[in-house]
Specification:
The chain contains five helices and six strands; from the N terminus they run H-H-E-H-E-E-H-E-E-E-H. With 193 residues, the chain is of the alpha+beta class. Helix 3 crosses helix 4. The protein is elongated, with a radius of gyration of 24 Å.
């Protein structure tokens, strides 16, 4: 090999190394951007788009494997009055408190998401209606132990929660609608009591 060929090969190897490093940096940035695109900006949960995408995947898996799966839909009670009396910072604290309760009351294998505003979703794998009702009660209790500071003093938080256990053939839209209807029945019952 002539010195000129050896120099050219060394230069090319250096360029290949530089391109590999740039490619790895780009992969890391794409990975970071994907994570940001799936995350809620206020709480450490998935956003609606990511939640629905993963829920579809989990439903398909559960149907293939014959596993139980349940969906919980939650709504923070009286968030508008909290915002009105304590400002949006108080509302943000209420949402963060509910998110922390969801994390504390579920397993790492469960799917958690903030669906928008004061609504949250939880998908419980390998869980039937009875097990989902137990988790629902645990979440409602845990949230009731949290408070948000308002000018007139601390206010205990509460959530209304609906449950839907998936049955074969139940569509994602129907399951979300059933859980949502169950949540609103819970909210109405809470207001009457």
């Amino acid at each position: 090999m002539t010195p000129a060929v050896s120099t050219a090969i060394q230069r090319l190897l250096g360029e290949v190394q530089q391109l590999q490093e740039e490619l790895e940096g780009l992969r890391e940035r794409v990975k970071s951007a994907e994570a940001l695109a799936d995350a809620d900006p206020l709480v450490p949960l998935r956003n609606r788009r990511s939640f629905v995408r993963e829920l579809e995947r989990m439903i398909a898996y559960a149907e293939r494997q014959g596993h139980g799966i349940a969906l919980l839909m939650l709504d923070v009670d009286d968030l508008k009055p909290i915002n009105d009396r304590g400002g949006h910072a108080a509302g943000d604290v209420a949402i963060q408190q509910v998110a922390a309760s969801l994390i504390d009351c579920t397993r790492a294998s469960d799917l958690l998401g903030r669906l928008g505003g004061d609504e949250f979703g939880v998908v419980l794998m390998d869980t039937d209606l009875y097990g989902a009702e137990e988790i629902r009660a645990r979440i409602e209790f845990e949230v009731s132990q949290k408070t948000v500071d308002l000018p007139e003093g601390p206010l205990a938080l509460s959530v209304s929660c609906g449950v839907c256990a998936f049955e074969p053939g139940l569509s994602l839209e129907d399951a979300m609608r059933q859980a949502d209807e169950s949540m609103y029945r819970s909210k109405r019952a809470r207001r009457l009591s």
